[in-house]
Fold this sequence. Notes:
Elements: E1 7-12, E2 28-33, E3 36-42, E4 47-48, H1 55-64, H2 92-98, H3 101-111, H4 113-122, E5 145-146, H5 147-160, H6 162-166
Helix pairs in contact: 1-3
Amino acid sequence: MPLNLGKIILILGAGFFFSHAAIASMTCFMAVEGTEIIKKQGRCELRYSPYSTFKIPISLMGYDANILIDETHPEWPYKQGYVDWLDDPHNPRLWLENSSVWYSQVLTEKLGMDMFSAYTKKLQYGNEDVSGDKERTRNNFRFLLSDLCQIGLLRLRKTTGLLGVIRGF
């Protein structure tokens, strides 16, 4: 079956975008065309911790707040005590390539909880509860997100430009 260039097929599977073992047996498939979900199969409304996909909105928050400058700035050094196995200095590009937890944590600390929470609410992202533990960018079981919500964020980015949505802080 040929794929229409205007059609966006998004396959979200527990083992593909999300690596949480507890959801490994629960899958979701969605096909989206424009702003319409044309096929949805599985438990797409189930909410769980976002893990690495949360880096998308965190990066947008960081660029909007002028903390992140470009793909190589700022570069932050690893410090003893960071939760991660990656102990090299990282910049935005390496952060995303390596899925560095500690870089996410430093960025959210620089945003501050008030701004971080305000951005999350402005994006209407997940259940918007960022009041969890110190590792709020990973293993935060208060902040929960469904595949439907993630598709919504990506559709919003495609149709309206996500940075335009979070401007004004």
